[in-house]
Amino acid sequence: MRLLVVEDNEELARLLIQGLAAEGHEADHLTTAAEARSALTTTRYAALVLDLGLPDGDGLSILREIRQRKDPIPVLVLTARGGLHDRVTGLRSGADDYLVKPFALEELVARLEALLRRPGQLLGRSLQVANLALDTESRQAFIDDKPHVLSARETAVLELLMRRKDRVVSKKHVEDQIFGMSGEVASNAVEVYVHRLRKQLSERGAKVQIHTIRGVGYLIAEEKAG
Amino acid sequence: MIWLKSIFSRIIFLHVIAVLITAIFMPLVLYWFVRSAANDLHDQAMREQADLVAHHLVLGADGGWTLDLPPPLQALYSQAYGRYAYAVIDDGGRVLFSSLKDQSPLFARDPRSPDHAFLTTRSGDAAMSGVSLEKEISGRRVWVQVGEDFAHRDVIIDDVVAEFFKRVGWITLPILLFLLGADIVIFRRALRPLLSASEMAKQINPKRTDVRLSAESIPKEILPLVQAVNQALDRLEAGFRVQREFTADAAHELRTPLTILRSRIDTLVDRKISKALHQDIEGMARIVSQLLDIAELETLSIDPQEKADLRAICAEVAEFAAPLALAQGKDIALSGSEASVWVHGSAEMLSRAIRNLVENAINHSPPGTTVEIVVEDAGIVTGSFAQPLATRISSAAGTIRTLLIVFNPPRFRPRLGRPICGPG
After folding, report:
1. Which of B252, B253, B256 to mutate to test the interface with A (most CBs of A within 10 A)?
2. Cβ contacts of A171 on chain B, cutoff 8 Å
3. CATH number, domain at B285?
4. Distance from B408 to chain A by nearest Cα, in Å?
5. Does pTM surpass 0.80?
6. Binary contact (B263, A168; C-beta < 8 A)
7. Fold of A126-222
8. How would DSSP label each residue in B286-337?
């Protein structure tokens, strides 16, 4: 599966494609809205990186067309316009994420990967953070390719965190996703599961760290060396 | 009339003067008209009576005069009634007939006018007023005098004139005052479109250049002025728009080259140079963002009723800033109220302000620090790392009152020490 980068600036597009390739993502490049429309109807891409300011039209119109035909392709919008109105319009038109120029290449890659880690997307089946992997279908966790047994809820919490690697998952989101409608949730239930996860992963040599962002939520990231 | 600032007060002032002058002169003029009309009526009545007397005057064949008045006329001129009197005088001034007891003429000084003359005379309590009318009967000229005693109890026409001020003239003042009141209401109604246009004009400022004066209901005398003001505002708005668009376009145009530059730097092998260049790019990107923010703020109009959940905004900022803090070996936390804290203000602008402060706190605190954002129920956000970092956002009055930003202490002393103020 390839990515599609629609960006009218050739130099920027070349650098983006180089950067994505360095992270293991192959991408095609198109410069106009017309080319993008044609390519998106004939080729199935894993994700679309879409610049809004194209020479022959507005990128938002492509976005609306994609969503009108129920195409679930993850779309990351690139734009020089970062005002509230622009962002709201972009997201309401069907963008999954929004990156305002100038951005760091690693941020682009991180956000794209976060989109690809969503359920049903390219990286959505097997999630990886450092030496920790999670097969979301078999619900099996691996550390250095060795399987490790985690409880169903611990696995669910881990999946939520790994799908948003390097980004905060709010405690409320974890509560809603894990406990759902299953009745009264103890106020410290999520803390208990995260504590258990943290302990087990640490004991089993996972090179990951689950950070607590007090009052907000949790974030999983690769453990820093040293 | 400089002290009368408004058109309305000028109109009312001039109108009051006009009413006062009218209130003085109108009764006098009316009195003059009434008296003149009464005199005319009296004179006409006297002439008709003189004609009637002359009609019954006959010159006999022997040259003698006879006056045979019908009984109703005799009663009218009788001594007993005493209201009317007549006398007939010949060419030589001799009294031929007189209803007076002493057979004297009514008016001793008769000018013997060829047509007629209106005369008055007083005799005792009587105030006789009447006419002397020349008549030619059978080739002989006579003067028929007819008069009415104004002092007689049955004569009221002179009383009407005399009582005019007391009984009728006073009504002019309340009528004029009522008219003045009605005029004030009318002026107010007539000036209402101008007042509403003035209210609209008050809203015009550099952030609200879209406001135009409504030409609806504006009097046609004022319409050219309103249209000219609106045209001037069009030109002003166009000027502001060009200025804003230039700033915004310049910032937009700079963002793509900055992204290219940043991406090129990412590919540099020398990490030391790459890091230094990254810092330069960050500075440039910040300036560009601020230019765009300025362009956006110039058009920003915050609805006074707009509300934002400060707790949710701070949580979002903490989520956003957490990767940045962790990457720098720092931590971030949110504490204080667990529930929503609603304040009046723009969520976007509050978010930008708080994010700016938190990023500054992260960037300027030593590694190992926890940057803490505390949201209080009263709508106050307090941040701390080394020394108090505070933003105060008041919810009591429903508006942002102060934005106090304290950061970058000279030494790291967690939650203690002297606050230092600086830009956010």
Report:
1. B256
2. none
3. 1.10.287.130
4. 22
5. no
6. no
7. Arc Repressor Mutant, subunit A (1.10.10)
8. HHHHHHHHHHHHHH----TT-EEEHHHHHHHHHHHHHHHHHHTT-EEEEEE-
